[in-house]
Write a structure and sequence with these properties.
By secondary structure, the chain is mainly beta. The protein is built from nine helices and 37 strands. Helix 2 packs across helix 5 and helix 4 packs across helix 5. Bound molecules: heme D. Heme D binds next to helix 2, strand 11, strand 17, strand 21 and strand 25.
Length: 550
């Protein structure tokens, strides 16, 4: 069966030389419905203004300057209605997937017309809008003074339930659901306060939620609509600033907001509109990953379209100092090296990984990788020959690249791809290991082959000559036949590194599950099933997320 989850995340269109279509129009109702579909399914990859990032440029009329200076005219109007319907229905070899199992024929027809019309531009979202949206449900002085439940909080997992817009808090010791809370449309990630008390979540609709784990039944104590479209957030982790601030990055408007850590009250909004590393103005440079330094009062804010990495010093937010580091365009996700001094981030559509030294505030290297590196936060381990390395897998290749990260002890290998391991397929999103583990786990949920998408590869990092093992995780969940593919996604360790958890991500109306393996034996330990576990994707163990352990 050939399907792909990119169908729910975005479109990729190839240009052909067809003639321009006639002036496209839609009824107000069809336009409104198409606009909604565009924002929910397409904007993530192509951008609100359709200038392209992970997906291609799909402006109605576009012109691309080639390296030799020639200009190629293109755009969706040139492609025309018929061709666009075909692309939307069947997908393309270039990465665009079929929408025929997600949208109706009528919706596809309207979408083909809609993307030939000028983009709808959502409103700006400033401090005033944010303040009006802000809800302080339980003020700090009415919250518990100590932990009121008996849960081992270190081993709680905050699990994204993508299609129900919720987060499930699961006790990692007992595997019981502690609570399920509303967390915004297609909630994306969870991050932890430095103290480990608060979980912060971000919905794609910009809804930011603050969950207090100390309550008898942990629940949301504050929310903020930080923007119209968002993917990332983090908290202040430097000594003296623990739990003081949070930062939320938004796709639309392209900006970030600094908030109070324990109330989410918005304090300062900073635009990321500006100039790319090529020196061209970009109107929609979206905030991709954000991480929090523990060696300085700084956040590393990665701006996708411009390729600029911002080191934002939060020690004086009224007089905000920012270091702007040129790297490569289309920055996406990334993680720390094992010392937490260097941050490695994928510039995915540039097929590169950028390395920043947060101590000196400088770019250290831009490393060529295979097509579309996608590390999640990556994985750190000590390679028997090359010393400390950080790993990334790829969306566009069945390869896991290992990059040397030890410029002191292994200078000749630092910031180079020192080895490439074979994954069981392309379409990988996440890799994971743990300091106490010898295993490196790699998924491939976006692979078009069902068997590959259901499986993961595991390497023994102490002996990489040993052939890896491919395990079909979905089969272990024993869910029976489902409408959607049961994608095995996002390995995550428990706090002591003895278990590794995988989400089985099926359709919204299908049963889904979380599969827990014993890391040492690689054998099944538990399957967490519940009708309320709808489309689980990311899982964030409190202790590991709090301390950036991966
Ligand atoms: Fe993600 C991380 C953006 C689609 C699951 N995703 C991130 C980050 C960004 C991002 C910028 C880094 C956040 C950080 O560290 O601060 N993701 C995007 C997109 O733009 C994209 C491609 C399309 C979209 O429309 O959203 C996209 N992501 C997806 C999915 O379809 C996934 C697989 C399922 C889902 O839940 O939506 C998905 N993304 C994740 C997860 C992480 C993530 C689980 C965190 C990984 C980690 O271990 O930290």
């Amino acid at each position: 069966m050939k399907r792909s989850v990119l169908a729910v995340t975005g479109l990729t269109l190839a240009l052909s030389g067809a003639a321009y279509a006639a002036e496209p129009t839609l009824s107000p109702e069809a336009r409104e419905a198409s606009k909604k579909i565009y924002f929910e399914r397409c904007a993530g990859c192509h951008g609100v203004l359709r200038k392209g990032a992970t997906g291609k440029n799909i402006e109605p009329v576009s012109s691309t300057k080639k390296p030799d200076g020639t200009v190629v005219e293109g755009g969706t109007r040139k492609l025309g209605q018929e061709r666009l319907v075909k692309i939307l229905t069947y997908g393309t070899e270039g990465g665009m997937v079929n929408y025929d199992d997600i949208l109706t024929k009528e919706e596809i027809k309207n979408m083909a017309t809609y993307i030939q019309m000028p983009p709808d531009v959502p409103p700006e979202w400033g401090l005033k809008d944010m303040l009006a949206s802000w809800k302080l449900i339980v003020p700090p002085d009415q919250r518990p003074k100590k932990q009121m439940n008996k849960v081992n909080l270190k081993n709680v997992f905050s699990v994204t339930l993508r299609d129900s817009g919720e987060v499930a808090l699961i006790d990692g010791d007992t595997k019981q659901i502690i609570n399920i809370v509303k967390a915004g449309y297609a909630v994306h990630i969870s991050r932890l306060s430095y103290s480990g008390r608060y979980v912060y979540t971000i919905g794609r609709d910009g809804l930011t939620s603050l969950i207090d784990l100390w309550m008898e039944k942990p629940a949301v104590v504050a929310t903020l609509k930080a923007g119209i479209d968002a993917r990332s957030l983090d908290t202040s982790k430097y000594k003296g600033y623990e739990d003081r601030y949070a930062i939320v990055g938004t796709y639309w408007p392209p900006q970030y907001v600094i908030t109070d850590g324990d109330t989410l009250k918005p304090l300062k909004v900073v635009s990321t509109r500006g100039v790319t590393v090529d020196g061209e103005y970009h109107p929609e440079p979206r905030v991709a990953s954000i991480v929090s330094s523990q060696i300085k009062p700084e956040w590393v804010v990665n701006v996708k379209e411009t390729g600029q990495i911002l080191l934002v010093d939060y020690s004086d937010i009224k007089n905000l100092k920012t270091t702007t580091i040129e790297s490569a365009k289309f920055l996406h996700d990334g993680g720390w090296d094992s010392t937490k001094r260097y941050f490695l981030v994928a510039a995915n559509a540039s097929h590169k990984v950028a390395v920043v030294d947060t101590k000196t505030g400088k770019l250290v290297a831009l490393i060529d990788t295979k097509k579309l590196p996608h590390p999640g936060r990556g994985a750190n381990f000590v390679h028997p020959k090359f010393g400390p390395v950080w790993a990334t897998s790829h969306l566009g290749a069945d390869v896991i690249s290992l990059i040397g990260t030890d410029p002191k002890g292994h200078k000749q290998h630092a910031w180079k791809v020192v080895a490439e391991l074979k994954n069981h397929g392309g379409g990988s999103l996440f890799v994971k290991t743990h300091p106490k583990s010898k295993n490196l786990w790699v998924d491939a949920p976006l692979n078009p082959e069902t068997e590959v998408a259901e499986s993961v590869t595991v390497y023994d990092v102490s002996n990489l000559a040993k052939p890896p093992v491919v395990i079909n995780i979905a089969k272990m969940a024993n869910l029976g036949k489902t409408k959607a593919v049961q994608r095995a996604v996002h390995p995550e360790y428990n706090a002591d590194g003895s278990e590794v958890w995988f989400s089985i991500w099926a359709g919204k109306t299908d049963p889904s599950a979380i599969v827990v393996l014993d890391d040492k034996t690689r054998k099944l330990k538990a399957v967490i099933k519940d009708p309320k576990i709808i489309t689980p994707t990311g899982k964030f163990n409190v202790y590991n997320t709090q301390h950036d352990i991966y």
